[in-house]
Design a protein that fits this description.
Helix content: 25-40%
Largest sheet: 8 strands, mixed
Bound molecules: flavin mononucleotide
Radius of gyration: 23 Å
Oligomer: single chain
Strand order of the largest sheet: 12-11-8-13-16-17-19-20
Structural class: alpha/beta
Number of strands: 21
Shape: globular
Length: 397
């Protein structure tokens, strides 16, 4: 619930601005007060009248409005909220924010505010993938802004890809997380999850049985404690958690690139089941079945993401947590893995088929650290995640 909380909602000039009408309703349903601000471009997409009617408050649009300035100066307006939400955060608005511009009411408020800021980017996939937007995103994240979305999907412009604004309820979840005031508030934590798919040809790939359930539960638990979570996921069976920044990847190579982009972080939890090997030469066309002839696949070693991050000379996360899925000698193999990789903790579990852990709802783990081995009883993956998240909160405090 958001009782007693106030959100300053800055609406940018993108097609997704219409979703803000629902967002205002959802925030108010949960008890939040919403003060809306529209950029000049936003007024081309939604009217200040509808925004104001739904918010039940004045909708601000103009920096140089004598009446507004007399009633509530722009500096005061920038400070009245518990959280500033920018939705949709257009490419232009993100660029202005990253550059420190203050040439209209929205950007001036964003420069003057001393409250946390959450942005929900929304734009065409090419605009989102453009080097300038990705540069601006990195700057804004470095400045401590929280990000929700964007999602992958069909776009108003007819293209498909990342750039769709998160749905109103996902933004509400991110608002609740940002305002949770938990022990991980202000901490940025990376979580990797799911399997990777290593392509053989355009239609075939090598995969593993990881469902992504444990990594997703860890990300959810960390967000519930107030962490700003960046969630890098392979093609998992379970949907990613709401209210976190999601980066979807396919292969180990893509996962490493996404992890490098997400750094720096305060902690990294590497729960993904990354394939150890990939096919050395991916065929650009489907390998044909020739009677009597079997294809020979040559393998190459994949990058070791956990080891690379653990052994970073500068910018290493303060806490690096790896996962070890073993079928034999779980504790001795996982203890050796911790030493070899250089991570701080290993969460080890036995994934032999008879345990039902891989793809199941429960887990029985051992937490291996400098302090030794802790055996946790078998419990739900959600409970493992919550226990691990509170241990991470203790370690980062
Ligand atoms: C129909 C239409 C839809 C648009 N949708 C988006 C969008 O979804 N995201 C975006 O970044 N820009 C979009 N633009 C471009 C922005 O409106 C333009 O960059 C504007 O200057 C952004 O203003 P702002 O900084 O106030 O958000 C769109 C433009 C038009 C004409």
């Amino acid at each position: 619930m958001l009782d007693g909380k106030r959100v300053l909602l800055i609406i940018g000039g993108g097609i997704a601005a219409f979703k803000c009408l629902d967002l205002i309703r959802r925030l108010k349903e949960r008890g939040a007060a919403v003060t809306p601000v529209l950029t000049s471009a936003a007024t081309e997409f939604v009217t200040p009248l509808s925004v104001s009617a739904l918010a039940g408050e004045k909708a601000y649009t103009d920096l140089f409005d004598l009446t507004d300035e007399a009633e509530m100066g722009h500096i005061q307006l920038s400070r009245i909220a518990d959280l500033v939400v920018v939705a949709p955060a257009t490419a232009d608005l993100m660029a202005k924010m990253a550059g420190g511009h203050a040439d209209d009411l929205a950007t001036t408020l964003l420069m003057a505010t001393d409250t946390p800021v959450l942005i929900a980017p929304a734009m065409n996939v090419r605009m989102w993938e453009h080097a300038a937007t990705q540069r601006n995103l990195a700057v804004l994240q470095g400045d401590g802004l929280r990000v929700v979305g964007p999602n992958e999907g069909d776009m108003a412009c007819g293209e498909f890809g990342f750039g769709r604004m998160s749905e109103p309820l996902e933004i509400v979840a991110a608002v609740e997380t940002a305002l949770a005031g938990g022990p991980l508030n202000g901490k940025r934590i990376l979580v990797t999850s799911g399997p990777t798919h290593e392509p053989i040809d355009p239609v075939r790939y090598i995969a593993n049985r990881s469902s992504g359930a444990q990594g997703t539960a860890v990300a959810t638990a960390l967000a519930a404690l107030g962490a700003d979570v960046v969630f890098v996921t392979g093609p998992a069976d379970v949907p990613p958690p709401a209210g976190v920044e999601v980066i979807a990847v396919q292969s180990a190579g893509e996962m490493l690139a996404a992890v490098e982009t997400a750094l720096p972080v305060d902690a990294g939890v590497f729960a993904a089941a990354v394939a150890d090997w990939r096919v050395k030469r991916e065929s650009s066309s489907k390998i044909k079945k020739n009677k009597g002839e079997l294809p020979v696949l040559e393998f190459a070693e994949n990058p070791d993401i956990l080891a690379q991050v653990s052994q970073m000379k500068s910018g290493r996360p303060g806490l690096v947590v790896g996962f070890a899925a073993e079928t034999d000698d779980v504790i001795s193999n996982a203890t050796a893995k911790r030493k070899r990789k250089g991570c701080d903790w290993i969460v080890a579990n036995d994934v032999s088929p008879e345990t039902g852990i891989m793809g199941g709802a429960e887990n029985a783990v051992h937490l291996i650290s400098d302090a030794g081995v802790e055996d946790w009883p078998r419990m739900s993956k959600d409970l493992v995640a919550r226990k691990l998240a509170s241990r991470i909160a203790e370690a980062l405090s």
